[in-house]
Amino acid sequence: MSEITKELTQKFVSDFKDNNKQNALQRGVVKNGIRASAENVSAQVNNVPVFSVDVKTGKVANQKQSGRCWMFAALNTFRHKMLNQFQLKDFELSQNYTFFWDKYEKANYFYENILATANQELTSRKVAFLLQTPQQDGGQWDMIVSIFQKYGVVPKTAMPESSNSSSSRELNTYLNKKLRKDATVLRRLVAEGKTPAEIQTVKAELLQEVYNFLAISLGTPPETFDFEYRDEEQAYHLERGLTPQTFYDKYIGVDLDDYVSIINAPTADKPYNQSYTVEMLGNVVGGKEVKYLNVAMDTFKKLAIAQLEQGESVWFGCDVGQSSTRDTGIMSLDAYDVNDLFDINFDMTKAERLDYGESLMTHAMVLTGVDLVDGQSTKWKVENSWGEKVGDKGFFVASDAWMDEYTYQIVVRKEFLTAEQLAAFEAEPTVLAPWDPMGALA
Question: Which one of 82, 223, 342, 383 counts the least CB within 10 Å of its CB?
Fold first, then answer.
């Protein structure tokens, strides 16, 4: 190994002091910060929020200080349908309700993975991976499908937001503390040679504690409720005695098995037109398997456009923090010119970013529009879940080039796939490691 010598550092110091351009940049960046100094206003000019295909959506929602973007995005796609079908205004489905059941199921999923790895050393990578983050707010499309199919949905009026759903840090801290302690109990039972029945009895006691913890923190999910509203014509509607499942069937009615997850991961280990899953990724034991079809980006965007053109929004996952402005809501490769600011080339290919840990899916939102020029996409309308104080009343604009580089997943109806693509999706998937970037939770 080669150390840094004092002489080498002194050369760097002298060279910097003698460079008037760098000294001028230093004053600006020290005072204003890197991104503020590098922001490129022309990115706003090139991404005006006007789109040739634009789905009606209503106001944006706000996940506040929580990592529930994936479920907000899924519930938003349902809300878009309900707004149009039932002439609703300013309506939302309960994110707290799905949050409760996701936490409850994730606890059981963690317990079962701990039991499945109980004969491995604590230093094994899989056990260490499980214990690093026993559960978190994030998730994947197929995971929210498992919650919807098992527990249904309810309007926000039936289970409103709580302090701990809107700001989830404390809840996650104590739930993970409990799950790690419970892991010591379950691993000890296996080491002592207890029977599966004895272990499941103890696990049920631990799950009762999880339920109690969640009920105290989030409220009790309703088993039945009344749905009362006025539509945009001020007509009054009331339906009594609904359950979460009957509400879903009547007011949403989407067959979630008609949808597939499509990814774009241009890495050497994931050939296109093949299906993939991720080991130990999920939330509901016995629920829907997390599964993707990997396709080239041109195909990826054509599938999204096909669904938008039929008036249906598209759930998608991306790396939102890359080259994006929160206040103006611009996601564009030229949003910041950091290369010129520092005279350093920060560029990597999409595959390199995935392989070297520079990027992965961090956030889920909804594509609600696209601008097509001569049949080609130029920019995309994005419904975020950060409230109306960011972007254009909560909506962002993604340039087409930004989509190419930082979007990783969309969910579309099977009908848009070719027979060959559908067969590839339905084939036995290649199993990826738990820590693969395609297993990232939005």
Answer: 223
- Catalytic residue set: 69, 363, 384
Provide the phi-psi class of 319: left if phi over 0, else alpha when psi is between -120 and 50, else beta.
Answer: beta
d(CA 110, CA 116): 10
d(CA 263, CA 166): 29
H/E stretch holding 25 reads: helix 20-32
Residue 131, Cα to own-chain centre: how many angstroms? 21
**Per the structure block, which two tokens stand in for 424?**
């590839």
pLDDT in tens, 200-240: 999 999 999 999 999 999 999 999 999 999 999 999 999 99
- The residue type found at 427 is A
Query: Could you write out the DSSP letters of every residue in 311-325?
Result: T--EEEEE-TTTTEE
Beta strands in 101-158 (DSSP E): none
Euclidean distance between CA atoms 437 and 281, whole angstroms? 12
CA distances from 300 to 305, 354, 385, 394 (A): 9, 18, 23, 25
The model's pTM is 0.96
Closest CA to 129 of 440, 422, 405: 440
Q: Is the dihedral of CA 25, 28, 29, 31 positive or negative?
A: positive
